[in-house]
Amino acid sequence: MKGWIARVRAGAGPLALLGVLTLAAGLLVLGAPRIANQLTDEGLRNDVSALSYTSRDLTFRGVKAPNANWAPDRRLTQQRDLLYPVLRERIQQSWWAASTSPEDSFVRGTGLPERTPPLFSVRTGSGLEEQADLVAGRWPQTRPGTDVPVEVVLTEYNAEQLEQRVGSTFRFQDSVPVEVVGIIAPHDENGTFWEPVPTALRAYLPNEDGDPYRAVVFSDETGVTRLAKQVQVTYEWRYRIDAATLDLAVLPAVVEGTSVARRQGIESSLTTGLDTALDRFAERARAAQALLAVVQLGALVTLAGLVVLAARVLVSRRRAEFALLRARGGAILTIGSYTLLESLLVLPAAVLGALLGAAVPGRPANTWPVLAAFTALAVCAVPVMTMRTSRDPSFSGERADVASTRVGLKRRTAELSLLVLAGAGVWLLRERGLSETGEVDVYLAAVPALLAAGAAVAMVRVIPPVVAWLGRLAVRGRGAVGFLGLSRAGRTAGAVIGPVAVLVVAVSTAVFSVAVAGTIDAGRDRATDLRMAADVKVDGYYFDERTAAELAAVPGVTAVAPYMIESAGDLAVDQQRKGTVYALVLDGPAYAKVLAESGVQFTPPAAFTETGQSPVIPALLSPGAAKQVGDGKGMVTLRGRFYDFSVAAVVDGFPPIANGATNFIVLPWQAFPADSRQALLPSGYLLAGDPDPQALRAAGDAGQERWASTGYRAKSYEPVTLVTTWDSARAELDETSVNAVITFAFAIGAGTGVLLALLAIGFAVVSGARGRGTVLSRLRTMGLTRGQGRGLLLVELMPVVTVAVLTGAVVGVAMPRLIAPALGLDTFTDGITVGVAFDPLVAGAAVALVLIGMLTALAVETLFNRRLRLGEVLRLGSFEAGES
Which residues form a coiled coil (predicted)? Predict the structure, then answer.
């Protein structure tokens, strides 16, 4: 036992370092995935919660056949029971409803203007009495019969705006009597129940002469059934999925269950966008997981390299002890078993790391095998190296620098194999991607680390001749420090291949994280430019002609371009309707000026900006719209009027139209004839400059107010002007669902990369400290000062460390370019694909890391020399003197 304790004390430092590295691996392997999973799941829930009810809920809609006798409330339960358990268990609330067709529900006798009769859709269903209180009257109780009125209630706001009260009557389709029997007040107007019926809360009040009033009123099932004889009644069964029960692990099952539910409707069809939204999130999550996996494996490979280096230091300290045991007849396996018992002290650290990692909040990941493998490496590294050293025992310190100049066949084969693995991995990454099947391939995720290690091997083979040549040049200079330092650097460069490889991998991981982060930022900047096409956007309903001048007069505004949007204009070719198209009317010259003033890198076609008035408008079409038009004569509706257009150019995209849009048409405002242009009204403006948003909003509200006052004006009309700045649009991209995961991955990569790089530099110092100590002891007797001794260390390490840091930086910057298709960075940049951005700060950070590394080297060397006691080294003439 005493011998075991003595051996543990002799290797306490390296053993403690092995324990710390294993503890860090436990946190990295078990804790980091939990944090990433928690951030991903929170992003998923936030995304789902932000969806509209049409996308989030499962809504089955159908029409009841005349001879059908099913009850809608029972159908609600029956439909739910058919769903997959993964969906059924996650339903938070459910409702059924039946409503008359809004477009066919015209009424008369309301007291409102009836040039276009008001449209009052009558609705019934579950949940109303739980979501509202009676303010006046009672709940509907329609009696059987054809002569009695259908009883309805409506909200307090609508009753005031539509001039209805308890006892008011009107005629549904001018034939069925309807009576208002109650006024209700919703508990929460933002509640889930009211989402499908916004006009039940706030009736649509017409903004133009000829627009009808639109509202929803509530009746009972008897009343709606009676109206079914006059108009089509649509039944719906709506199921709300609880976002709190969703996580990435169940996402595939939920998507599959939703897809199957489209075929499970009982005499109904499913309307939902949940599966599509979840698929999009899964794509972003896979890309984020791929980035995190690359960073984690880079850090893990660096930790594994440090484990090997720590084991190497421990074994080198006890080389004479192992040689003595071997000389006394000790078997190699027996000697290895001694050190195995000592290495078992790493296990408590591994257990502690596992417990700390498992205690991190978040959904667990199946990474225990990785931690087990790392722990096995930490435990077995010392015994394996001990047995390898015992095969060729030596009692004296060997010239590792000289031995390293001879590269054996096995080592050369291993180095070439490493390069082949890295190259093949890059090719596979570009061809297959990193997470094509949804699971990250460990080998492919390790390719950046393999490439960095391969670059380190190549660097170690190239540097010694160059440094030796510099050493020969230093002979001509004054002083011995430069010559001796460069000479030792040339001889020992190959001996420190382990620390150098670890240093290159650590630096490349950190720089890779920074480079990818910079690329994503640049992509989001570009996406914001294309989404905004200006510094500020002002949107509203319609503005009058004076608004543009008033916006231009706001301090800070340098250019203004008006535009009008027709989100669903009718597209016709040769007098035949082809469907709808997104139409944008934009002032070409003003648009070009806004782009130039805002610094947006986009050049619109000259056919758009330089055209003049023409009876046939030269238009820019998307490929999808151009395919529909072909060689025919095209027409598009704007505010109810048809305009002829010709295809001036086909464009894949046009700011500010959303990226990825495939069915749009852009028409130059200035090309419209004067008589036709009067029918155009701006619905928004693109602005350049840095104005006050409040001043823009005030000018926009005034413009909308004037427009509403020029013609027919509805009661309680409230102009709403939306002002969007470039910064706010950019911030929206930073608040994407998986952005927190990406930020976490970059923090791991940059933070651990720098720390482990400094640790690798420390190992590079320790690996040659004994030989360097002997040289310094002898040179001291020749008059070498302590300052010159420190200079000797810097000259010896500076070439290798500098080249290693630069190599890691180059690999880190180049890696995103090599494997960009596999990373899927466009999922984080609104679909915009941009080249890998180079941040000049990377170069500055590399220089800073070299300087900090040199300071670290000096500190480690000083501590080691004090422990080594250089005077005893010289007096005893042994490399092992001073060892404790």
Answer: none
DSSP code for 711: S
How deeply is 649 buried, as exposed, middle or buried, from its count of CB atoms within 10 A (0-12, 13-18, 19+)? middle
Span between the terminal Cα atoms of the chain, in Å = 19
pTM of the complete model: 0.81
Instruction: Measure the CA dihedral 328/330/335/341, to 10°.
Output: -100
Contact by Cβ (8 Å): 574, 632: yes
- H or E element at residue 117: none
Contacts of 485 (CB under 8 A, 6+ apart): 791, 792, 793, 794, 795, 796
Token look-up 């549904």 returns 172
Collect all residues with Cβ–Cβ distance below 8 Å to 74 and sequence separation of at least 6. Answer: none
Residues 505, 449: Cα–Cα separation, whole Å: 6
The stretches of 768-839 forming alpha helices (DSSP H) are 769-780, 786-823
pLDDT at 798: 76
- Indicate left, alpha or beta for 710 from its phi (over 0: left) and psi (-120 to 50: alpha): alpha
Q: Identify which of 712, 717, 718, 565 has the alpha carbon closest to the alpha carbon of residue 116.
A: 712
Over residues 635-657, mean pLDDT: 90
pLDDT over threshold 90, residue 815:
no
- 223-257: b (≥16 Cβ within 10 Å) or e: bbbbbeeebebbbbbbbbbebeebbbebbeebbeb
Query: What Cα–Cα distance (Å) separates residue 675 from each residue in 33, 565, 614, 615, 680?
Result: 65, 19, 12, 11, 10
CA distance 796 to 492: 9
Per-chain mean pLDDT for the chain: 85
The length of the chain in residues reads 884
- Reduced to 3 states (helix: H, G, I; strand: E, B; else coil), residue 45 is helix
CA 625/CA 634 separation, integer angstroms: 10
Give the SS3 label for residue 617: strand
**pLDDT 10s digits, 716-766:** 455 689 999 999 999 888 877 788 888 898 889 888 888 888 888 877 777
CB-count burial class (<10 Å; 0-12, 13-18, 19+) for 458: middle
Pairing of strands 233-241, 91-100: antiparallel
Q: Could you give the CA distance from residue 212 to residue 206 in angstroms, rounded to a whole number?
A: 6
- Spatial separation of the C-alpha atoms in residues 780 and 792, rounded to whole Å: 12
H or E segment and range at residue 765? helix 739-767
Which of 332-341, 375-384, 501-510, 543-552 shows the lowest per-residue confidence on average (mean pLDDT)? 332-341
d(CA 51, CA 527): 22
Following CA atoms 337, 340, 344, 346 in sequence, which dihedral angle do they give, to the nearest 10 degrees? 180
The C-alpha atoms of residue 28 and residue 353 are separated, in whole angstroms, by: 9
Q: What angle do CA 209, 215, 218 make, to 5 degrees?
A: 160
Tokens, residue 466: 């160059």
The whole-angstrom separation of Cα 708 and Cα 836 is 49
Identify whether the C-beta of residue 613 lies closer than 8 Å to the C-beta of residue 670. Answer: yes
pLDDT of residue 351: 94
Q: What angle do CA 578, 585, 639 make, to 5 degrees?
A: 60
| Average confidence (pLDDT) over 796-818 | 83
CA contacts within 13 A on the Cβ side of 578: 21
Q: Extract the tokens encoding 794.
A: 């810097």
Residue 415 CA from chain centroid, whole number: 36
Peptide bond into 656 cis (omega under 30): yes
E strands within 225-364? 233-241, 269-271
